[in-house]
Design goal:
The complex is a heterodimer of chains A (331) and B (498). Chain A has 331 residues and is mainly alpha-helical. Chain A has a two-stranded antiparallel ribbon with strand order 1-2. Chain A has one domain: Orthogonal Bundle (ABC transporter involved in vitamin B12 uptake, BtuC), CATH 1.10.3470. Chain A has 14 helices and 2 strands; from the N terminus they run αααααααββααααααα. By secondary structure, chain B is an alpha/beta fold. Chain B folds into 2 domains: 238 residues, P-loop containing nucleotide triphosphate hydrolases (Rossmann fold, 3-Layer(aba) Sandwich); 237 residues, Rossmann fold, CATH 3.40.50.300. Chain B contains 18 helices and 21 strands. In chain B, the strands form 4 sheets. Chain B has a 6-stranded mixed β-sheet with strand order 7-8-9-4-10-11, with helices on both faces. In chain B, strands 17-18-19-14-20-21 form a 6-stranded mixed β-sheet, with helices on both faces. In chain B, strands 1, 2, 3, 5 and 6 form a 5-stranded antiparallel β-sheet that branches. In chain B, strand 12 and strand 13 form a beta hairpin. The longest helix of chain B has 16 residues. Classes of the chains: A mainly alpha (331), B alpha/beta (498). The interface between A and B is medium-sized, with 21 and 32 residues.
């Protein structure tokens, strides 16, 4: 697949490289890394690379869920607020349980589990509204975005909650075998979602539902069930991310996660997932997430202003979409 | 009142490897409704495309009001007074009736404001068009809020706004329910009364008496003849359409069992079909014959739970149930290949392998898990068994031809090991060889004891393939015939007459 033995000479260079087209992003990432290794002071060090991984892992975890959502033909705009909500719920519940005499080593796991369950539940409600009442997820998650933001403010009363003991920070900034703990979660979620999408009936149903919901339904796939579970999964991963975020900042704060929905959706789109649904890969999202992380890190190391970073990121999204659309338009 | 006139002399159209029209001379007079009929592939659509200017004839002449014309493009045809109303609607649902009638040709204001739309002008002009058609419609309503029948009227008004001398209606009733057609026919007659030559292309032979003055029959690229509606008895029409067709017969070894696998009892859906009863036997290929709009497709969809039915039941294994979802009916051993395979049968951007596994994921997976290798092992033998020509089963199914796509749909369902397969128009739009292969597949299924229900607009296919044929008319089963004792012509007559 990588080389075409029949092609020869400069005229057919384009056709020789055509099969490589789908690895464009990988090559660009490689190129950027090489460039930064020479030009950005301190980029190619173990500590900095782990730092990049740590920086992308919180949003990356959500991006894998978002990939499922976008492939299924839906969207989730509430992830930013949901990150804050999940952190706040965890902090509040920990404080509440501790105040009622439960030791912290029990209160925190309980609070985390409730937070994940709440996330899953909220996602399922979105999926249910989509399935039962045909409410577009674009709208319902926009509503959730506001509701969860408000709920976070209500829970925290405007001030960060800090009931956590020192050991809790391990979830957000600890190291395991020399690797940041969130990065391990990020890699684990990547593997899990990759397997889910490629090797399970559920994953295959998601592609079918996003590609052609009516054909999927006539094939006996329970379209509604698939959509509900997909929305539940992304919301649960968002809650997981929120828990890790709260551990990193050691508090539940209503201001975390702001604007994350755009970063996450950007990474998924840069990774080649079709906004029309039905097509995309988890690997692509992985590359997209790492790419964005490397780029931001590199620009920071090179002292490029934050304003320029925004411009570059926006341009990148456009470029990625154009690259992805080009082959489709030829048909 | 002008009496318009569209004529062709010795029209011929060749495509690489085939002759679509051969020496076609027809004569459509103004002030009358001319029905143009023929089987699929008879050359109707080629003739329509020539009239509409989208295809140029290889040889022959086209005359409008006695003067030879050349139609180089659709806009050329419009300019010369031939308007066409296509089957697919070309309306913008979010725009009003008036805007749609003048879509892209909105009257402008004058002077400095000439880049602005003259809304008053649009309303007046649209009102004029509708008045001319003796139709009352609220011009300010959005087209999306109108029913199909009214949308069809807007579509015709759009064509009429060009003030044509000839108007072609391509299957105008195909999207309409039976009761909606009457208004449309009144409108069509109205147009003819104004001197316009109306060409009405239709598959619904039962409508001819209601709307047409003459009937022109095409067969295999030839014009068989034009007759007045008074002479157009079902027997004559059937003979013109099917006469001289040698009928193929099914293999002699096919046997249907005696015990019923599925009983359909009093199935009904308001406005679609009602009181449908039949038994399907083990290994039987059961045909359902009926004109377009007789409720055949709706019936199959209801049996498979695609559109739940309102009354009646289906008896499987002695248990009576009312189908509600495709998933439920699949679990009971039913399978369904939809009429519209591109949109409902397959997920076009997925690979052939993924599509074949789509309906049987629960069988292929272990504890929800699957691998490419495992799926390939399932898909490959099916591709061979059904003779699907597929360069690479990992390529998107969209790249396959219609016939091969249809076989992929069938493969998808064979994977579920069904006992009954419902085929809705499985041969539509596929070539002769692929058709024969589809028939072979049905016969093979029959030999294995799997029962098939076969719906087709091509009645001669039913006579060739089926053990038994049910006749469906106006939403109910009106009779049962056996291919051994009926000719295609007789079957057409049985399907047509009231």
């Amino acid at each position: 697949m990588t080389e075409n033995p029949n092609a020869a000479g400069g005229a057919s260079l384009v056709s020789t490289l055509a099969p490589l087209r789908k690895y464009v992003l990988e090559f660009v990432l490689l190129g950027v890394c090489l460039f930064l290794a020479f030009r950005a002071p301190g980029f190619f060090t173990r500590d900095n690379l782990l730092n990049v991984l740590l920086n992308v892992s919180m949003q990356g975890v959500i991006a894998f869920g978002m990939t499922m959502v976008i492939i299924s033909g839906e969207i989730d705009l509430s992830v930013g607020s949901a990150v804050a909500f999940s952190g706040c719920i965890t902090a509040w519940l920990t404080g509440f349980l501790a105040a009622h005499g439960l030791p912290l080593f029990l209160a925190i796991p309980a609070a985390v589990l409730v937070s994940l369950a709440a996330g899953f539940g909220i996602g399922c409600v979105t999926g249910f509204l989509r399935t039962r009442f045909n409410v577009p997820t674009f709208i319902s998650t926009l509503a959730w975005m506001t509701v969860l933001k408000g709920a976070s403010e209500l829970i925290t009363n405007g001030f960060p909650l800090t009931p956590f003991p020192q050991w809790y920070s391990y979830l957000g900034s600890g190291y395991l075998f020399g690797i940041p703990f969130p990065a391990i979660i990020f890699l684990a979620v990547f593997c899990a979602i990759q397997v889910l999408m490629s090797f399970t009936a559920f994953g295959r149903s998601i592609y079918a539902v996003g590609g052609n919901a009516e054909a999927a339904r006539i094939s006996g796939i329970k379209v509604g069930q698939v959509k509900i579970l997909v929305m539940g999964t992304v919301a649960m991963l968002t809650a997981l991310s929120g828990v890790m975020q709260s551990a990193q900042i050691m508090s539940g704060s209503a201001t975390t996660g702001q604007g994350w929905e755009l970063d996450v959706i950007s990474a998924v789109i840069i990774g080649g997932t079709s906004l029309m649904g039905g097509a995309g890969t988890v690997w692509g999202t992985f590359i997209g997430v790492v790419f964005l992380g490397v780029l931001l890190n590199g620009m920071t190391l090179m002292n490029i202003s934050e304003y320029w970073q925004h411009v570059v990121r926006g341009a990148l999204i456009l470029a990625a979409v154009l690259i992805n659309l080009a082959p489709a338009q030829k048909k | 009142m002008r009496g318009h006139h569209l004529q062709t002399v010795n029209l011929r159209k060749e495509y690489p490897g085939t002759v679509a029209l051969d020496g076609v001379s027809v004569d459509f007079e103004g002030g009358m409704v001319h029905a143009l009929i023929g089987k699929n592939g008879a050359g109707k659509s080629t003739l329509v495309k020539i009239f509409a200017g989208s295809v140029q004839p290889t040889s022959g002449t086209l005359l409008i009001d006695g003067a030879p014309v050349e139609l180089r493009s659709p806009s050329d045809a419009f300019a010369k007074g031939i308007a066409t109303v296509y089957q697919e609607m070309s309306l913008v649902p979010e725009m009003t009736v008036a805007e749609n009638i003048f879509l892209g040709r909105w009257p402008r204001r004058k002077g400095l404001l000439r880049s602005m739309v003259n809304w008053r002008g649009i309303a007046d002009a649209a009102q004029q068009v509708l008045d001319g058609m003796h139709v009352s419609l609220d011009l300010r309503r959005n087209v999306g809020e109108l029913g199909m029948a009214q949308q069809q009227i807007v579509e015709i008004a759009k064509a009429m706004s060009f003030n044509p001398s000839v108007i072609m209606l391509d299957e105008p009733t195909s999207a309409l329910a039976r009761h909606e057609t009457e208004n449309l026919f009144a409108l069509i007659r109205q147009l003819a009364a104004k001197g316009v030559a109306v060409i009405h292309i239709t598959h619904r032979l039962q409508e001819l008496k209601q709307v047409a003055d003459t009937v022109t029959v095409l067969r295999d690229g030839h014009c068989i003849g034009s007759i007045g509606i008074d002479e157009a008895t079902p027997e004559t029409i059937a003979h013109m359409m099917f006469g001289g067709v040698t009928q193929a017969v099914r293999p002699a070894d096919l046997q249907a069992g005696t015990e019923p696998v599925m009983r359909v009892r009093r199935l009904g859906q308001p406005g679609k079909f009602h009181g449908v009863n039949f038994d399907l036997r083990k290994g039987e290929v059961l045909g359902i014959a009926g004109m377009l709009g007789s409720g055949r497709t709706e019936l199959l969809q209801a049996i498979f739970g695609v559109d739940p039915c309102a009354s009646g039941e289906i008896v499987l294994d002695g248990k009576a149930i009312r189908p509600t979802t495709p998933a439920g009916m699949k679990a009971l051993g039913l399978a369904f290949t939809p009429e519209n395979r591109k949109e409902h049968g397959l997920v076009q951007e997925l690979s052939t392998r993924a599509n074949v596994c789509l309906a049987s994921l629960d069988r292929i997976t272990t504890a929800g898990f699957t691998t490419k290798a495992r799926e390939r092992a399932v898909v490959r033998p099916l591709m061979e068994r059904l003779a699907v020509k597929v360069p690479d089963i990992e390529h998107a199914v969209a790249s396959l031809s219609g016939g091969n796509q249809q076989k992929v749909v069938v493969a998808k369902w064979l994977n579920t090991e069904p006992r009954v397969i419902l085929f809705d128009e499985p041969t539509r739009g596929i070539d002769v060889q692929a058709k024969q292969q589809i028939f072979q597949i049905m016969w093979d299924l029959s030999r294995q004891g799997i029962s098939c229900v076969f719906v087709s607009s091509e009645l001669e296919e039913l006579v060739e393939v089926c053990h038994r044929i049910l006749i469906m008319k106006h939403g109910t089963i009106t009779g049962e015939v056996f291919p051994e004792s009926i000719s295609v012509e007789e079957l057409v007559v049985r399907c047509m007459d009231a």
